[in-house]
């Protein structure tokens, strides 16, 4: 945000709707840079040497299991953790030594942290008031922020008079009213029930598209990350395992952790074998599964294969696919839009999901024999870490 109060009136021009996702940054075009950030709580390392850069308008989701350091990392970026090591740059300027209120970062906290004694309008005005902008001067920015999140009818209400979704929108309006360079959203939808959550996901996407603001979103919900972000950073025990476009992280995970964390997979340990005919297989007990190697692994490499539940095909008759196995149906669970199968196969218990019309119109019986298979290309085989 510009430091001079008059600039606030230009709020209408501060954000432009996004037309397409911005390209990934180069060193020269980076808007936000996080460089070798490490944060310890006593002897516990919560964030371990994290680096990444975002271009202007880019949206990154920090995704990972509970306790992996997501909140700690955005608190460091926001300036709430003074003891962090490393650098945060915005537009090429190192802001690491600046206090939170001088970083031009808007934050939406997990619990929204709205001031209970202030109306929506005054909550939204809060950041500008702190910057000594008079309410009259701030009015256009307040109006625009409230309009963006569609809370005009509720501007005079107090937080306790709002629904969860409305509180969430008020928190977003408060964060963007200061025209921040960067928006940080910590688990923005986690306080909402499942149905509202899905609706708010679409609303949030629209708001973020409208703003076209550089955003980091913390979530442990994959669907949220995949739906809202241009790229995802998968965190594990404080470090970034992979940062990639959602489709690349899902289809081409670089580590066993990412492969197991994203999506719903069946995982088995085995040994890689290269056959004389040039194809590759992974031996799991008595069974060999053919796969298309994505990384170089000599014969004898200990590896783990990930078989995505939705890539398995189940049929009563023979299927034209690789890796065909006979299996016994332990459970067939009909969920309306999809059929879930739990199968006993020669490599172990498999979970398969099908939304194909033929499977949905079929009734399967527990104990019946079926065929299960998956293409060689769909298997993700990644070597075990050495040591
Ligand atoms: N103030 C603190 N003192 C000591 N340890 C802390 C403190 N805050 C967080 N931690 C620890 O640091 C690790 C990372 O916590 P953090 O809240 O960043 O994780 P997270 O990925 O955001 O988790 P969640 O998804 O559950 O919110 C956790 O193991 C947590 O117990």
From TrEMBL:
Q: Which GO terms describe its molecular function?
A: ATP binding; ATP hydrolysis activity; transmembrane transporter activity
Record-annotated ABC transporter domain positions: 32-262
Q: Which InterPro entries match?
A: AAA+_ATPase (IPR003593), ABC_SmlMolc_Importer (IPR050093), ABC_transporter-like_ATP-bd (IPR003439), ABC_transporter-like_CS (IPR017871), Mo/tungstate-bd_C_term_dom (IPR008995), P-loop_NTPase (IPR027417), Transp-assoc_OB_typ2 (IPR013611)
- SMART domains (alphabetical): AAA
**According to its record, what are the GO cellular component terms?**
ATP-binding cassette (ABC) transporter complex
Query: PROSITE patterns per the record?
Result: ABC_TRANSPORTER_1, ABC_TRANSPORTER_2
Q: Which residue stretches belong to region Disordered?
A: 1-27
* One family name in Pfam for this protein: TOBE_2
The record's listing under Gene3D superfamilies reads: 2.40.50.100, P-loop containing nucleotide triphosphate hydrolases
The record's Gene Ontology biological-process terms are: quaternary ammonium group transport
Which key words are in the record? ATP-binding, Nucleotide-binding, Transport
Give a yes or no for keyword Transport in this entry: yes
State the family it belongs to.
Answer: Belongs to the ABC transporter superfamily.
Instruction: Give the protein name, as stated in the record.
Output: ABC transporter ATP-binding protein
**Top-level taxonomy:** Bacteria, Pseudomonadati, Pseudomonadota, Alphaproteobacteria, Hyphomicrobiales
């Amino acid at each position: 945000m510009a430091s001079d109060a008059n600039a606030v009136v230009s709020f209408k021009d501060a954000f432009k709707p996004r037309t397409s996702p911005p390209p990934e940054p180069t060193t020269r075009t980076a808007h936000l840079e996080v460089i070798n950030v490490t944060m310890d709580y006593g002897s516990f390392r919560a964030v371990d040497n994290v680096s990444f850069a975002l271009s202007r308008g880019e949206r990154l989701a920090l995704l990972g299991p509970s306790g992996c350091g997501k909140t700690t990392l955005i608190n460091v970026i926001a300036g709430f953790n003074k003891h962090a090591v490393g650098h945060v740059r915005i537009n090429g300027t190192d802001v690491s030594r600046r206090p939170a209120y001088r970083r031009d970062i808007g934050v939406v906290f997990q619990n929204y942290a709205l001031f209970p004694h202030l109306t929506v309008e005054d909550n939204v005005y809060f950041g500008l008031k702190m910057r000594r902008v008079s309410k009259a001067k701030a009015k256009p920015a307040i109006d625009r922020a409230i309009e963006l999140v569609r809370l005009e009818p509720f501007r005079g209400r107090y937080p306790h008079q709002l629904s969860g979704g409305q509180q969430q929108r008020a928190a977003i309006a408060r964060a963007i009213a200061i025209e921040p360079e960067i928006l940080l959203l910590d688990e923005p939808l986690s306080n909402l029930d499942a149905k509202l959550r899905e609706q708010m996901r679409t609303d949030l996407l629209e708001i973020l598209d409208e703003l076209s603001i550089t955003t980091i979103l913390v979530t442990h919900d994959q669907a949220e990350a995949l739906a809202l972000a241009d790229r995802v950073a998968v965190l594990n025990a404080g470090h970034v395992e992979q940062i990639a476009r959602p489709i690349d992280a899902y289809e081409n995970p670089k580590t066993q952790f990412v492969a197991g964390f994203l999506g719903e997979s069946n995982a088995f340990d085995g040994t890689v074998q290269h056959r004389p005919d040039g194809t590759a297989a992974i031996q799991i007990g008595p069974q060999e599964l053919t796969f298309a190697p994505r990384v170089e692994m000599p014969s004898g490499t200990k590896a783990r294969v990930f078989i995505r539940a939705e890539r398995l095909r189940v049929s009563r008759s023979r299927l034209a696919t690789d890796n065909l196995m006979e299996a016994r149906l332990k459970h067939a669970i009909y969920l309306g839009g999809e059929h879930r199968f739990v199968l006993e196969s020669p490599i172990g218990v498999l979970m398969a999901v099908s939304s194909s019309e033929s499977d949905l119109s079929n009734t399967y019986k527990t104990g019946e024999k079926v065929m299960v298979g998956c293409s060689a290309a769909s298997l993700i085989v990644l070597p075990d870490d050495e040591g």
